[in-house]
Design brief:
By secondary structure, the protein is an all-beta fold. The protein has no helices and 10 strands. The strands form 2 sheets. Strands 2, 4, 5, 8, 9 and 10 form a 6-stranded mixed sheet that branches. The protein has a 4-stranded antiparallel sheet with strand order 1-3-7-6, with no helix packed on it. A hairpin with a 6-residue loop joins β4 and β5. The chain starts with a strand and ends with a strand.
Length: 124
């Protein structure tokens, strides 16, 4: 079992950048896929990036490729989400999540552990 806690959200202007952080605690020695999800008002939760904690290429859905970058620091048990060229439609609650195993599913229902989420608001 792991616990996750996000930080780094806030209000930013369109065109700017933001880095979200997630600290992973608990049984971090196991294999997990670590993902970032977001949920805008009246929309379904969607994956924006995911990576296996053992390495390998990250997964990004097509509509965020080139603007979102997931990275991890296993020594610090941290996973990050860098968001560049922010758009108003990036406004959402962002969540860090973990799924047991190496497969990074895009389906939020397959993730076992979740942080409480952090708000990102992009203004023009």
């Amino acid at each position: 079992q792991v616990q996750l806690a996000e930080s780094g959200g806030g209000s930013v202007q369109a065109g700017g950048s933001l880095r979200l952080s997630c600290v992973v605690s608990g049984n971090t020695a196991r294999s997990y896929c670590l993902g970032w999800f977001r949920q805008a008002q009246e929309k379904e939760r969607e994956v924006v990036a995911a990576v296996w904690n053992g390495g390998g290429d990250p997964y990004y859905p097509g509509h965020v490729k080139g603007r979102f970058t997931i990275s991890q620091d296993n020594a610090k048990n941290m996973v990050y989400l860098q968001i560049d060229s922010l758009l108003r439609e990036d406004t959402a609650m962002y969540y860090c999540a973990a799924r047991s195993g190496a497969y990074c599913s895009p389906d939020p229902q397959e993730y076992d552990y979740w942080g409480k989420g952090i708000q990102v608001t992009v203004s023009s």
